[in-house]
Amino acid sequence: MNTLGLLIGLVAIALAVFFGLREFRKSITSELSTIKDTVIAIRETAEKTWDLVVSRFAVSGGTVVRELENLGKVRITAEPAEGETSYFIEIEKPILNQGYIVKIGKETELARKEKELFRKEGTVLVLSRQRMRYRTPSTDPKTCTEFITFLLKWLNSTYVESLEGIKEFEEPILP
Questions:
Q1: CATH number of residue 123's parent domain
Q2: Domain assignment present for 36
Q3: Distance between CA 164 and CA 19 in Å, rounded?
Q4: Range of the domain at 93
């Protein structure tokens, strides 16, 4: 009888250790996932903060200011780097929305124009409702100028005209 009690006790301890370790592993996986998500958010915030600081305080010889009908005063700063050119675009009207720019860009001629000029799409990062950074995968001045001119015309016309469509996404889901 003692042997049976001892055997049942050992089985109970083994089961407790097994289930305890399994839950510990799940907990660690969950925590690591949370840490990864937090690090990604911190990196994006740091990038946006750095871009705002650079665009506001850095002296750059590649800045152009234009007045566009639907965007108002537009300030464009070009910063070539190895393999890409970053453009900081600041507009007068607070209408920029990253998700919507990406969505409308894929549905209209913007993505097609990028692929035509660069063979791939650039990267857009909206820093605020009035500021964005656009990275083109090129340093060729002629190609980049052609694209940025196209982008500004696209923002001033197609994007602004499509802003009515964003209301359907902003409408409350529940009455």
A1: 3.30.1360
A2: yes
A3: 55
A4: 60-166
Tens digit of each residue's pLDDT (9 = 90 or more) over 90-116: 999 999 988 889 889 998 899 899 999
Confirm if 144 and 134 have CB atoms less than 8 A apart: no
- Alpha-carbon distance of 117 to 36, in angstroms, equals 35
Question: Looking at 58, 77, 96, which one is the last position of a domain?
Answer: 58
Q: Which of 121, 108, 86, 116 is nearest to 155 (CA)?
A: 108
Q: How far apart are CA 163 and CA 170, in angstroms?
A: 11
Confidence of residue 61 (pLDDT cuts 50, 70, 90): very low
- Could you give the CA distance from residue 168 to residue 164 in angstroms, rounded to a whole number? 8
88, exposed or middle or buried, with CB in 10 Å at 0-12, 13-18, 19+? buried
Contacts of 163 (CB under 8 A, 6+ apart): 95, 100
Spell out where 36-129 has E strands.
63-68, 72-81, 84-91, 123-128
Left if phi > 0, otherwise alpha if psi is -120 to 50, otherwise beta: which for 140? beta
- pTM here is 0.63
148 — phi, psi (to 5°)?
Answer: -65, -35
Q: Tell which residue, 166, 52, 41, has the closest CA to residue 99.
A: 166
Pairwise CA distance, residues 88 & 78, whole Å: 7
Q: How many domains does the chain have?
A: 2
